[in-house]
C-alpha cells in the first residue's frame, strides 16, 4: 500500500519547501507532488523535465449568446457578483459559476461553459517522478486542482511501484490545505517560533485533527525565539504531538536555494543532519504499522 506524507505549515515562509525538497532527495522510492498550486516553487529545486501536460478546468463561467439575447437586463440585476455589465458582457474573473443567470434568462441565451484555469504536469526529476501544477492568474478552485495533482501522483505511484508519495502542501488552512491532507497517512507541520507561526500552527493542527490525520511537528529557526520554541514544545506535549526536530536558523538554506539544490544535497553540515533525523523519524512513523503487521503474520505462520 502506498503511504502518503503531506508537509504543511499553516503560514508561508516557515521552510516547508526546504524540508520537502530534502525529503525528495532522501526518499528512495517515492513520487513527489507539489500541491502548493497557487505559488508552486518545488520545480525551482527539482528542475523537472515535463513529460505530460494536462489542462485544468475550474469553475464554469457564464457565456451569453448575443443572437438570442434581447438585452432585458434580468441577468445583470440577478448577478450578485456584478459579473455581467449593462452590455451583457461577462467578466470571467468575477463570475463565480453559480448559474443564476442561466436559470433566470427568459430567452435561454445564457449557458455555463468550462473555462481553462491552469495546467498540471507530470515530470521526471533526479529524485524520481514529480507531479506539479500552475493555477492561472486570478483563478479559483485551487482545492480542485490539488485533488487532480494528488490523483495523478497516486496513479504514478501505483504504476511504477512506489511505496510513498511526498506532498508539498499549501500554506494556510483553506480548501487547498484540506484537499492536500485528506486521506494522507501523516501530516508534518513545519513551524517557526513567531507569534503568527504559533497561531497558525494551532489552527492547522486543529484542521488535521478534525480529519483524524496523525500530526507531527518540526520547529524551524528555533533559535530566533527560544522562549516561543519552548511554548510550542509544551503545546505539542499537551496535545500528544511528537516534535521530530528543532533546527536553527542557517544561511546554508539560502545558499542551497540559490544553487538550485536541496539542502541535503548541497551540504552535509549540521542543518542537513537535522533534516535527515526528521526524515528518519517520519519513515519510522509511516512504516511502523506495516512492520508490525508483517511481524504478526510471521508469528502467526510459525505457530
Automatic annotation (TrEMBL):
Which segments constitute the 4Fe-4S ferredoxin-type domain?
60-85, 86-115
- One MF term in the entry's GO annotations: oxidoreductase activity
What top-level branch of life does the organism fall under? Archaea
SUPFAM superfamilies cross-referenced by the UniProt entry: 4Fe-4S ferredoxins, P-loop containing nucleoside triphosphate hydrolases
Q: What is this protein called?
A: MinD superfamily P-loop ATPase, contains an inserted ferredoxin domain
Organism, per UniProt?
Answer: Methanolobus vulcani
Amino acid at each position: 500500500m502506498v503511504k502518503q506524507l503531506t508537509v504543511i505549515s499553516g503560514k508561508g515562509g516557515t521552510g516547508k519547501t526546504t524540508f520537502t525538497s530534502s525529503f525528495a532527495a532522501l526518499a528512495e522510492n517515492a513520487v513527489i507532488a507539489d500541491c502548493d498550486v497557487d505559488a508552486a516553487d518545488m520545480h525551482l529545486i527539482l528542475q523537472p523535465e515535463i513529460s505530460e501536460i494536462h489542462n485544468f478546468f475550474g469553475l464554469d463561467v457564464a457565456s451569453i449568446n448575443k443572437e438570442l439575447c434581447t438585452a432585458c437586463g434580468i441577468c445583470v440585476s440577478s448577478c450578485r457578483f456584478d459579473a455581467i455589465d449593462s452590455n451583457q458582457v461577462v467578466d470571467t474573473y468575477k463570475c463565480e459559476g453559480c448559474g443564476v443567470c442561466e436559470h433566470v434568462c427568459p430567452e435561454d441565451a445564457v449557458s455555463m461553459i468550462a473555462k481553462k484555469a491552469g495546467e498540471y504536469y507530470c515530470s521526471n526529476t533526479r529524485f524520481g517522478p514529480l507531479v506539479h501544477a500552475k493555477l492561472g492568474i486570478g483563478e479559483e478552485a485551487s482545492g480542485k486542482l490539488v485533488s487532480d495533482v494528488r490523483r495523478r501522483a497516486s496513479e504514478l505511484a501505483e504504476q511504477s511501484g512506489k511505496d510513498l508519495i511526498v506532498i508539498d502542501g499549501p500554506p494556510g488552512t483553506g480548501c487547498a490545505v484540506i484537499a492536500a491532507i485528506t486521506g494522507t497517512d501523516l501530516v508534518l507541520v513545519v513551524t517557526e517560533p513567531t507569534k503568527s507561526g504559533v497561531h497558525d500552527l494551532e489552527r492547522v493542527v486543529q484542521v488535521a485533527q478534525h480529519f483524524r490525520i496523525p500530526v507531527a511537528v518540526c520547529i524551524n529557526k528555533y533559535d530566533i525565539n527560544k522562549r516561543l520554541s519552548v511554548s510550542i514544545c509544551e503545546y505539542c506535549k499537551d496535545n500528544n504531538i511528537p516534535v521530530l526536530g528543532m533546527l536553527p536558523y542557517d544561511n546554508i538554506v539560502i545558499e542551497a536555494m540559490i544553487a538550485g539544490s536541496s539542502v541535503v544535497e548541497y551540504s552535509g553540515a549540521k542543518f542537513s543532519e537535522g533534516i535527515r533525523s526528521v526524515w528518519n523519524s517520519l519513515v519510522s512513523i509511516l512504516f511502523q504499522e506495516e512492520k508490525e503487521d508483517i511481524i504478526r503474520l510471521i508469528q502467526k505462520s510459525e505457530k
